[in-house]
Write a structure and sequence with these properties.
The chain is an alpha+beta fold. It is about 35% helix and about 25% strand.
Length: about 400
Amino acid sequence: MLGACRRPTRRQETTMGPNVTLRSLETAVPGTELRQSEVRDALLAQPDLSRLGKRLISTSFDASGIERRYSALSEWHGTADGEDPVFFEAGTGRFLHPPTGARNEVYEREASALYTQVAAAALDAAEGLQAADVTHVITVSCTGFFAPGPDYRIVRALGLDPAVQRYHLGFMGCYAAMPALRQAQTICRAEPDAVVLVATVELCTLHVRTSNDPDTIVGSSLFADGAAAAIVTGKELPSTTPLLQLDHFETVLTPVGEEAMAWRIGDHGFEMVLGTYVPHIIDEHITGALVPLLAHEPALTELPYRKIEHWAIHPGGRSILDKVEAKLELTEAQLVPARETLRDFGNMSSATVMFVLQRILRSQTTGRRERVCAMAFGPGLTVETALLTAIGAPES
């Protein structure tokens, strides 16, 4: 158990505002599909690998639980005539080592397109709302930087009111979508007419590189590109589609793990530290991390974890999902949305848990209300949790 869990204070319990609902959730991926076996073989063919490095690549990729991922880099399948490759020579199979600036140039171009695409889709899917209703924009990313940033690009591209309030959560890592949704909830409880657009885009494959370092190899076997966006509001509006009520959020830092998961900027891209001990840290401290969240509703603390119908677990890797399922004694079916997301898309950092939530929403039974416990893990080691309610579409 985690020793220093923070229980909800009286202030937290008595300042609850109106119900805040996620009214649409859309996802997107860039156009280049990468089969996991193809990426593995490309890395194995690099001339600077040691025998141990090759063995680690084979083990990490084959045990990842991933079949395909997506990348913003079209160079995997060759470049246009007359263009020199920057990241990968498809003809020779050689990985190149572009500097961080070159990687970030691609990020600015490709991330901007994905942000506007997925944000527009979320706005189109939000019944009863339009661009003029949006009052706040929250963007999330840890795989690149530019200014004016993605929040600005969304306002301009979607024709939002130029007075829209904008926030960007940068470089928080895989758990960042959760504090973004929490901030949206806070805004909507404080301002009953608020409509918040939350968008996250991660282009992790811009930072893939060859190495004999075990942490780098594990990251190369897992990380992918993806985007998600949601519309959040406390307004009472009719809906013909499933909704997600945002009930409670909590944050816990585990007492160990600061060096086990980290994200730093290097001269040749961002450098992920993803230690093999991370699943063990989660295994040891996950139940303690749930204590402050479930304390918001004491009746839930008396039940087995599997009695909460849905679990939206950030699939940081297959071993993490295995640990969560075993430690919490969940059913295999409760981990299906997370495992299928990992299988079909890989680990897209902060966007990934949104893909998992989307799968849960799409499977929601008409007319039913079911609880969802969401968890995401990131640098620190930080555990972000949320208690939500999936609301099925009304019965006709």
